[in-house]
Amino acid sequence: MSDPLAALAVGDRPEPEPLPGWTTVRVLAASLNHHDLWTLRGVGIGKDRFPMILGCDAVGVDESGAEVVVYGVIGDPDWPGDEASDPGRTLLSERFPGTFAERVAVPRRNLLAKPAELSTVQAASLGTAWLTAYRMLFVRSGLRPGDTVLVQGSTGGVSSALIALGRAAGYRVWVTGRTEAKRAAAVEIGAHQAFEVGARLPARVDAVMETVGEATWAHSLRAVRPGGTIVISGATTGPNPPAELSRVFFREVSVVGSTMGTRADLASLLSFLVISGVRPAIDSTLPLDRAADGIGKLAAGDITGKIVFTLS
Ligand SMILES: NC(=O)c1ccc[n+]([C@@H]2O[C@H](COP(=O)([O-])OP(=O)(O)OC[C@H]3O[C@@H](n4cnc5c(N)ncnc54)[C@H](OP(=O)(O)O)[C@@H]3O)[C@@H](O)[C@H]2O)c1
Known about the structure:
Helices cover 27% and strands 24% of the residues. The longest helix is centred in the middle third of the chain and has 15 residues. The chain contains 9 helices and 15 strands. The two termini are 34 Å apart.
């Protein structure tokens, strides 16, 4: 895969221009996501959109001086359903400039009050990876407290969120991780047990949370119980594994897609953290002008939880 840092430039861009119904937020902190690596590699974005400001989520200060969490999904204001079903939706940094900047313009309805119980850095970690994990587990999976879930990946942004949220919700949480240190970190975050990638599990699970793709898909199909569910929101190692359709139909496995979450999901996630006391694992906090260091670390897979960039 290409080096994401080859496409990175740090510099000045014009002030964001709010559209009608939009507002400008002064960014305090924003988290790094795998999405930013895809963008730097030119995946999911046309070259005609470059230069593009990265960053899908943030905490900032709105025009009234209040601290707000930025919801990064920009939907069609006239779409009658929620954002998840809006075919025209886009994520900050895909069409509109993202949050790795002093200021970002967003629709006013995309701002949620930051709960006082969460620090700026904690709240800035939630808008993409944690929101995705929340929707996978609590909206798309059909899991109920007491069920067993397998999370593929242990220390990544989405996987660490899945572990912490799943544990707090009363699921038995099993995890796969690539190294002993990562597996230990997953147990620290809340997993009941951590296994090597592809390992035979003690029993089949009710649902698998899949973001890894080709490297783990066959294992996910073997790990899920008949009638169980695989929720997939990403394919970091590639989107085209052998489908093994006979396993899907013979065992009546449901394969369910999931992408980001709605604004209402984000409000519920913020509330869940306040009520449960769960907090995101923060790998590191870096000033935005050291973005290259954070991007290099994420690309190397050398993280436990979220990398957050701060602006003073
Ligand atoms: N659809 C959506 O709305 C949405 C939202 C968020 C993310 N995503 C996608 O979901 C994926 C994960 O995002 P993220 O931000 O959590 O990325 P991340 O922080 O870079 O995490 C990557 C995860 O993948 C695992 N992994 C990578 N290579 C692997 C391999 N060869 N074998 C086994 N596991 C491997 C890592 O496992 P270890 O813990 O063992 O290192 C880690 O847990 C990305 O592809 C992203 O684009 C989609």
